Amino acid sequence: MSSTSDAPATAGAAPPEACLEVEGLAVGYGETLVLQRIDFTVRRRDIFVVMGESGCGKSTLMRALVGLLPPAAGRVVIDGLSLWEIEPERRAALQRRIGIAFQSGALWSSLTLAENLALPLRRHTSLDATAIADLVAYRLALVGLEGLEELYPHELSGGMRKRAAIARALALDPGLLFLDEPTAGLDPLNARHIDELLLELRAGLGTTMVVVTHELASILTIADECLFLDIESRTAIARGAPRRLAAEGPPKVRAFLSRGKAARPSEPSGEPS
User: Fold this and answer.
1) Mean pLDDT throughout 50-66?
2) 221 and 16 in contact (C-beta within 8 Å)?
3) 13 contact partners, CB below 8 Å, separation of at least 6
4) Residues 6+ apart with CB under 8 A from 58
5) What residue ranges do the domains of the chain occupy?
6) What is the CATH topology of the domain spanning 17-97+175-259?
7) Smallest Cα–Cα separation from 179: which of 200, 196, 193, 165?
């Protein structure tokens, strides 16, 4: 697999601390392997993008990384703990230290935004109602939804639902955040707002992120490093900074990263939705 990372190399310096390490991973359903021989490391505070054409296994890989799909082989190591080799109770505790924003948002339609965000806090902390309400308001403010606590998901625009899903994923203050297609289905302006939000959250909170996407504009905007999954070989064929891969990666990866123009409005027009 080609690796062309743009990370600075200083003689004698220790490498950045790893937040997530994936070793020899194979994932699939039943006897059918979707991916095999997957190896990569995500450095703390990086935004790491898993990319590739539709059907290459991006979301399947994410399910294994967050503890929803047992791998057929290999290891997923988060903060030094092997996710699938520890006891179920310790795995559940480790999963509470990561956040997940699903592509659909997965918000409870019968709950307000405040109730959606409060649910994991009530279930997994001993905070009282006042402290939970304060944290909910803070998380919504972080994603630009301040003052909207009493709205229901169906009252939100697509971009606002994406923001709400990110806010809920941040409820327990995770150090590692997984996002599945966070800009899918959005117009270019709102997609750009989501990309900017992710960069702001990384800068302000120091959150490490693993983002699954096939959106070229997002990849070029947010990614420190990318992993390209190949649908034919069912493995990763390149890893590195996106612009370096666009210039020096395997032909299939260069073609993927050069398709069309990643055009987005250069100036915002009104408030993000």
Assistant:
1) 93
2) no
3) none
4) 50, 51, 52, 180, 212, 213, 214, 229
5) 17-97+175-259, 107-173
6) Rossmann fold (3.40.50)
7) 165
